[in-house]
Amino acid sequence: MKNLLLLFAISSVFTSCKLNNSTEGKTKEQTKDSTIVGVDKDTNGCLASAGYTWSKLNKECVKAFSGIQLIPTENTTTVDETLCAYVLFNENADKAEIFLPDDKSFIFTKNNQRKTWSYSDYQLIAHNGYELKKAGVIVYFGDSEIGNKESGSSDSDVQE
Question: Residue 106: enclosing H or E segment and its boundaries?
């Protein structure tokens, strides 16, 4: 009888206990905090949450915004990095990959002309920085500095 009573007590303890990993009763913030960060890899294994995207040209995950930033011609008052295009070159600079804001990228090939790369009806021209033309119209422009630009400050604003 003691054994039967002990067996009943042990089985009731196991069946009445809840598992600790239940989300019942937690707030949204508590549940969100337990989410694993960094599991948003794309099909090429690039970690988008860390700013990486696949480069067709370099065959590796890159941070496109670390390339040459081109600003859209239609909105030049403030620089919104999400609307900018970015340029990365290969080692020989005979090819350039342009990353557009809609997450598309295109590989441009250097023409016989010096400092001009083209793809379809696009043309990248190195002239006082860079200009990206589509069907002969400048759609993006920028200097030759690598990386994002700070808006609202310039060395030329300082008067001596």
Answer: strand 105-110
Helix (H, G, I), strand (E, B) or coil at 7: helix
- In 3-state terms, the chain is what percent helix, strand and coil (to 5)? 20, 30, 50
**Neighbour-count burial for 99-123, b at 16+ CB within 10 Å, e otherwise:** bbeeeebbebebeeeeebbbeeebb
CB 41 within 8 Å of CB 48: yes
Decide if 97 contacts 106 (C-beta within 8 A).
yes
Q: Does the predicted model carry a pTM greater than 0.70?
A: no
Assign 102 to helix, strand or coil: coil
Q: Are 138 and 74 in contact (CB under 8 A)?
A: no
Which tokens hold the place of 140?
């993006």
Phi/psi of residue 57, each to 5°?
-75, -50
CA gap 74, 102 in Å, rounded:
16
Q: Across the chain, which distance is largest between two alpha carbons, in Å?
A: 100
pLDDT in tens, 67-115: 999 999 986 667 778 889 999 999 989 999 999 998 789 999 999 867 8
Angle (nearest 5°) at CA 86 between 108 and 80: 145
